[in-house]
């Protein structure tokens, strides 16, 4: 059976990204049957550029109403594809097989609910960010289920809406993302895995996507992640992120040491401190509020 495909792209002031992204999507070997851009009241030419494509539908929402979970959920419910893909405005498909490869696990295995692609560092990514991407997004595809939790921990629930595909029927069955200001993708993956579904990582579905965050930005990002993890502690209770973080830090630090890249090693150390401190602060906020 042929399955239809929808693509949803949330945007905010994306005039320097959105045109190239849409062009790349329309050049795919498997072009989505519908493309929906959900814009949070951009102040630049994002809406004008996206609206210039006859293949693209644009919906504008008030920026104050944006929520990572609810906004994507409402957008999904406005589309009709059997498979619903999400991308971020700053992700760039590495080739014209991206969509085809992203949805392939879902097409080939009826037990797979979600498929995520591989994020490659952009040309301007600093060295330690390149290594972080290499650790988190390997060249080996995999499929994870509930039986993997004891060995993989929180990685069992890996999913990323930078480039992800969802089986609509399972998404509806599990009740959707719901309200969340962070990690709606992991939340849905956890729901799927705990309900007996599988989650795939398609390493050959590649996009370029990376950020050179300052320690302050990294702190705030991980503070939000910490709040998310604490709020959803019951759902994620079988999986700890601590061991995975330690392995990442050790892997990247050892590579930088071997390369003799002392400046990047110190920068990465500051990045790790910001990640850890932010995570602890976010968790503490939720614990204190619950008392």
How would you portray this structure in words?
The protein is 45% helix and 18% strand. The protein has 291 residues and is of the alpha/beta class. Strands 1, 2, 3, 4, 5, 6, 7, 8 and 9 form a 9-stranded mixed beta sheet that branches. α5 (127-136) packs across α10 (242-259), α9 runs parallel beside α11 (262-290) and α10 (242-259) runs antiparallel to α11 (262-290).
Characteristic key phrases:
globular; Spore Coat Polysaccharide Biosynthesis Protein SpsA, Chain A; 45% helix; alpha/beta
What can be said about the biggest beta sheet?
9 strands, mixed
| Integer-rounded radius of gyration | 19 Å
Task: Provide the domain count.
Answer: 2
What order do the SSEs take from the amino end to the carboxyl end, as H and E? EHEHEHEEHEHEHEHHEHHH
Please report which band the strand proportion falls in: under 5%, 5-15%, 15-25%, 25-35%, 35-45% or over 45%.
Answer: 15-25%
Cα separation of the termini? 52 Å
**What structural category arises from helix and sheet content?**
alpha/beta
Helices and strands in order, then pairings?
Elements (H helix, E strand, L loop, with lengths): L4 E7 L6 H9 L7 E6 L6 H6 L4 E5 L7 H10 L5 E5 L4 E2 L4 H11 L3 E9 L6 H10 L5 E3 L4 H4 L10 E5 H6 L10 H11 L3 E11 L6 H17 L10 H18 L2 H29 L1
Parallel strand pairs: 1-2, 1-4, 2-3, 6-9
Antiparallel strand pairs: 4-8, 5-9, 6-8, 7-9
Helix pairs in contact: 5-10, 9-11, 10-11
């Amino acid at each position: 059976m042929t399955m239809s495909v929808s693509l949803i792209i949330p945007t905010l002031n994306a005039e320097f990204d959105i045109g190239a992204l849409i062009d790349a999507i329309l050049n795919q070997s498997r072009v989505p049957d519908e493309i929906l851009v959900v814009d949070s009241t951009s102040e630049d030419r994002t809406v004008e550029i996206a609206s210039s494509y006859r293949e693209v539908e644009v919906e504008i929402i008030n920026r104050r109403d944006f929520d990572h979970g609810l906004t994507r959920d409402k957008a999904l419910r406005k589309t009709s594809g059997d498979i619903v893909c999400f991308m971020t405005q700053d992700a760039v498909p590495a080739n014209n097989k991206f969509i085809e490869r992203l949805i392939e696990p879902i097409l080939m295995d009826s037990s797979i609910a979600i498929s995520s692609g591989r994020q490659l560092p952009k040309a301007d990514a600093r060295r330690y960010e390149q290594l972080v991407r290499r650790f988190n997004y390997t060249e080996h595809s995999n499929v994870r289920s509930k039986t993997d939790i004891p060995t993989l921990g929180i990685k069992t629930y890996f999913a990323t809406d930078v480039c992800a595909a969802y089986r609509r029927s399972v998404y509806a069955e599990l009740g959707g993302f719901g309200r969340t200001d962070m990690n709606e993708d992991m939340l849905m993956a956890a729901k799927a895995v705990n309900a007996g579904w599988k989650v795939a990582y398609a390493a050959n579905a590649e996009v370029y996507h990376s950020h050179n965050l300052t320690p302050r930005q990294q702190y705030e990002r991980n503070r939000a992640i910490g709040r998310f993890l604490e709020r959803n502690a019951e759902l994620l209770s079988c999986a700890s992120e601590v061991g995975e973080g330690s392995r990442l830090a050790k892997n990247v630090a050892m590579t930088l040491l071997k390369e003799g890249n002392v400046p990047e090693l110190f920068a990465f150390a500051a990045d790790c401190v910001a990640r850890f401190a932010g995570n602890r602060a976010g968790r503490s906020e939720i614990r204190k509020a619950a008392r």
